[in-house]
Amino acid sequence: MFNKKNCMAALLALPFIGVAQQPNDTISMQKVLNDVNVNALRATEKTPVAFTNISKSEIEKGNLGQDLPYIISLTPSVVTTSDAGAGVGYTGFRVRGSDPTRINVTINGIPLNDSESQGVWWVNMPDFSSSIESIQIQRGVGTSANGASAFGASVNLKTDGLKKNPYFTTSNSMGSFATLKNNIEFGTGLINNKFAFNGRVSKISSDGYIDRATSNLKSLYLQGTYFGASSVIKALVFTGHERTYQAWNGVPLNYLDENRTFNPYTYKNEVDNYGQTHYQLHYSKQLSTETTVNVAAHFTHGEGYYEQEKIGEDFVDYGLENIILSDDTISSTNLIRRKWLNNDFGGFTYSLNHQMGNLDLVLGGASNSYSGQHYGNIIWAEYASNGASNHQYYWNKAEKLDHNFYGKANYKYSDATNLYLDLQRRRVDYIFEGYDRNGVPSEQEVSHVFFNPKIGLFHDLNQSQSIYVSFAVANKEPNRNDYVENKADEYPSHETLYDTEVGYKQSGEKFSLGVNLYHMKYKNQLVLTGQINDVGAYRRANIDESYRKGIELEATYKLSDKMTWEGNMTLSENKIISHNEYVDNWDTGDQEKIDYENTDLAFSPTAIWASIFNYKVDKNISLDFISKYVGEQFIDNTSSDDRKLDDYLVNNLRLAYDWDSKIFKTAKLTLQVNNLLDNKYVSNAWVYRFVSDGYDPREYDHYVNADSERGYNMAAYFPEATRNYLLGLTLGF
Q1: Would you say the pTM of this structure is higher than 0.90?
Q2: Ordered DSSP codes for 675-721
Q3: Cβ–Cβ < 8 Å for 103, 75
Q4: What is the pLDDT of residues 423-442, one digit of tens each?
Q5: The domain spanning residue 679 has which CATH number?
Q6: How many domains is the chain partitioned into structurally?
């Protein structure tokens, strides 16, 4: 199993491999080696998959304090959401309707997704966008990557590369809802043609659009690089700490018109408090003009809690006995609890790039280990029973091993045609505290072995036009809750995705166009059905057949020397062939079963588009008019209008002024007005459906609304901010 000491020893030892190199280096060689591990996972211009690259300059345009999901929000098929409503704090995104647990994310080739929940929490990495050199988003299965399989998309982040000259930059933003961002970025440049050091310190705070949805975020990034004649060693550490007031519960439907910033949490310390530190060490070596190799070691430690005030909790639910006061027996109490997560994740990644004539070959993989402790403490109780205060009422541990190996071959069949083959084998072993077949709590273990093949063809029609086609298979294991909340004989099956992509590209000086057709067919996709299992938990169930299919369009048109337009559009159909929904009956205590056919997958709008008009007033001033449209989407899998989010169109305006300064090397002022037309829209929601003929809870619970079909919907919505602004100033030496 994972050993923290061994991992740290490896991190310390790796830099000494190949240090004795000759100093006759070149900048171009340093840059090539600096990118070896990232390039092993990334698609190139002739890779037959749908992808979008975002450069450093594009990232900087919108980097005014909002989280990374908002930086990539204008790329094809992406929908973003923010719990606090203003893009700071808990944020997320979907691609082609796929949620964050189905999107593979790597940083310099190192997996970022949580091993158990399989999601990514950007709030733990505040202002990380300021340390990113480039982003590649692959839609669909894409190419093989380290970590969990891409089940809708993959996002590959590359941190800052080599900067030859010393620099010092500070970026500061202020805006609506008391939003404030301050950072300092610095670097030594290349020292003696061998060493380079750079770093960043950041602080972001915001009151949030939603009441009390405050965020207090801090982060640090440090990087050191050694350049040899034919090798590069890069060491990184980046850490983030977040303290956010919870806005997880959402807003009742009836409040959206008059009280849309409502937050039900009023306890002063209803916060999420978590810190996470990442260590990476990369070694790249050019063995010959045809061969390069990369080895990386990594370690991540995360620890924190979320605190909750709970009213009228039963002692028995916390492993406590009743207490007797006078003649009364008390079996419940008001209390405050903290739910903790303490986890470690570490391992190795590797890749070898080799060119043999017309064949480009990449061999790579990873071996990673995770250890996570989950526990809860009562820190205060109104009625303390048997030491209820500071009582630890649950504790369990999980361990996960994840090994994968892939081989990628891109063969130049002719001057116009490339053939692509990508094969991956992945093994997952997961040990956790769960329930055996009889419902008895005990240690459980599951294992999966997956084979994920990909094949494709890329063909140049002429110098400006090309086409491609690919077919890929991906397999994905269930997440933590699918195991720990089911008995051993009720575990769901793994999911399988068959992804077909067909594309066309045209490039020109004035006009460029990209068209991508996709068909993603799922076998045993896991969805919420409302069904309660034998241990009393709501479970995800495997759906036999479901699919996503659509067309993605991207275009850029140079209208004049001063004006450029770029945009994208996705039109799609996202369906479940047939499934069952289970609805609680509050009168009988049972569940009612409802059969559905050909319904829409939840949170999968049929239309998404984005548009940017850029106008260069002069060499120093530019203006962007930005539009984003998201079609209506259902919040469960029943296609019911009672459980649907309306479509919305949001327009932003961004004005950037770069002025010539004798003091500063860089001097830039940016004003961004978000939601320019002051639209009221909702980006996310949750729902629980039930029936009751004898009891109407609406008088006592504002989250409950009548269902036109029958019964009630307990639902909450996450409204986004109305018109707001961000003003940023960047100064650099």
Answers
A1: yes
A2: STT----EEEEEEEEEE-SS--GGGT-TTEEE-SSSSEEEEEEEEPP
A3: no
A4: 999 999 999 999 999 999 99
A5: 2.40.170.20
A6: 1
